[in-house]
Structure formats: C-alpha cells, structure tokens
C-alpha cells in the first residue's frame, strides 16, 4: 500500500508540473510514455501474434517529431502507418499475417495516437488545464474504486474480467472523480472560488458535473478494456515499471480512454 501511494504521488506531481509548467519536457515525456505503453501492449500478445514492434516505435518517433511542428499531421499518420503495415505483410508474407498487423495497429492507435491528444490539449493555452482534469477524473475513479471498493464492495461489477471490482467501487470512483476535478479547478484558480467558471451559474455547474460523471464512467470502462486484454493473454499486468501499479498501461488505461473524447468535446463545443 505504501509503495502504491508513493508511486501515485510522485506520478501525479510530475504529470501536473510537466503539463502546466514545462512545455519543453511535455512532448518528450508524452512520447516516452506512449512508446513504452506501445511496447507493453505488444509484449502481452507475444504468444498470440508477432507484433511489428520495431516499425511501430520508429513510426511513433517520427509521429511525435512531426506532431511538434504540424499538429494536423495526427489526422493522417495512422492511415499511412496502416498502409505501411499492410505492405510489409505482403512483402514478408512468410513471416507476418493479418493478425500481426491487427495487433500492431490496434496497439499503435490505443497508445501512440491516444497519448497524442494529451499534447494536443496541453499545447493549446486555452485548453492547457484540461489534461490535468483528465488525470483527476481517471485517477480519481481509480482511487475511489480502489478504496471504497475495498471498504464496502460486496456486489461484483464484472467478475469475469476483474474479480475485485464492485458496484460500490464503481460509484465511489464517480464520486471521487467529481471531487478531484472540483478540487483541482479550485487550486488552479488560485483558491479563488469566484473565478471558477462552472460555479458562475447553476446550468454550467450541472453541465460540468454531468460531463465529469460521463468521463468517469468511460474511464472505468477503459480500465475494464485493459483488463480484458490482459485476461485474454493470461497476464496480470502490462509490466512492472511503476511500483505498486504495474506497467505504464496499468496506470494510464482510463486516461487513454477519455483523452480523445475530451479533445473532441473541446473542439466541438468550446472553440
């Protein structure tokens, strides 16, 4: 428990500082985390397929380099990568098949592309705080689910995928997501409650809480998606890089699931 808590505190502190105060470290950090997550994803499939890991990492490095200079590139590069993988499958048909391509491409979208939205949000000044909110929602759901589930969990949520998850933990995760988000916003606005935009009128406040609840539910579904991948491959964790948590994907599974959704919401409704 102590190791898990310490790892969480260090990870949260570093993530917030990089997102809000260090544009120079932001993209390299996201790139490194994304590439490690991609490697972890491919590694759990090593007995089921032969993912094209090297090609994926090379394309990821190129992608993040181009993302810095041309953010719009992220809309096209995944299609280019798929075409490249299919060409490799044809050229090396004796070694690779469609299953290898599918696993590689799914892992690439799930990690490299989804992590890119962290940078796309944080690099726009008006959206810079929203990646922090994403972390608060996803990690709040994890925290509430874990502690409230351990204390009060009696009704299993999805025993086939994650035997320890409970409905009590699920609703506790939603509650904690809302509380974490409100607290983070309060701190971000210099502890001045009059500056908090969603408290200026009841309608905006209800919208904020509703969107937070929706994203918290998605985050917990993302956690179950990761559990299903591990369960299919008979793995407990994606790795052991983060003490007490497992791998990068074990810590960011919920975050990855809601990053693109938040970016789409901001682009459509808050332009």
Description of the molecule:
With about 270 residues, the protein is mostly helical. It has 9 helices and 2 strands; from the N terminus they run ααααααββααα. The protein has helices spanning about 1-20, 25-45, 55-70, 75-90, 100-120, 130-150, 165-190, 200-230, 250-270; strands spanning about 155-160, 160-165. A two-stranded antiparallel ribbon has the order 1-2. Helix 5 (about 100-120) crosses helix 9 and helix 8 (about 200-230) runs antiparallel to helix 9. The radius of gyration is 19 Å and the shape is globular.
Task: State the shape.
Answer: globular
Global structural class: mainly alpha
- Based on the structure, what is the oligomeric state of the protein chains? single chain
What's the number of extended β-strand segments?
Answer: 2
Helix-strand sequence: HHHHHHEEHHH
Strand portion? under 5%
End-to-end Cα distance: 42 Å
* Biggest sheet layout: 2 strands, antiparallel
- The helical percent reads over 70%
């Amino acid at each position: 428990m102590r190791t898990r808590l310490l790892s969480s505190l260090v990870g949260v502190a570093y993530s917030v500082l990089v997102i809000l105060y260090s544009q120079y470290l932001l993209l390299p950090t996201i790139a490194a985390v994304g590439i490690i997550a991609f490697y972890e994803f491919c590694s759990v499939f090593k007995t089921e397929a032969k993912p094209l890991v090297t090609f994926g990492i090379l394309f990821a490095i190129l992608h993040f380099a181009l993302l810095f200079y041309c953010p719009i590139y992220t809309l096209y590069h995944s299609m280019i990568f798929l075409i490249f993988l299919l060409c490799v499958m044809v050229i090396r048909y004796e070694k690779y098949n469609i299953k290898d391509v599918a696993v590689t491409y799914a892992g690439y979208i799930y990690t490299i592309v989804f992590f890119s939205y962290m940078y796309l949000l944080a690099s726009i000044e008006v959206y810079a705080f929203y990646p922090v909110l994403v972390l608060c929602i996803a990690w709040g759901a994890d925290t509430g689910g874990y502690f409230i589930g351990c204390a009060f969990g009696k009704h299993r949520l999805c025993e086939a995928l994650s035997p320890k998850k409970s409905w009590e933990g699920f609703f506790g995760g939603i509650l904690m997501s809302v509380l974490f988000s409100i607290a983070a916003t309060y701190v971000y606005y210099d502890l001045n409650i009059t500056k908090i935009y969603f408290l200026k009128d009841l309608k905006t406040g209800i919208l904020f809480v509703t969107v937070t609840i929706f994203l918290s539910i998605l985050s917990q579904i993302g956690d179950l998606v990761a559990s299903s991948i591990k369960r299919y491959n008979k793995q407990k964790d994606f790795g052991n890089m983060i003490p007490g948590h497992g791998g990068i994907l074990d810590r960011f599974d919920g975050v990855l699931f809601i990053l693109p959704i938040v970016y789409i919401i901001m682009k459509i409704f808050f332009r």
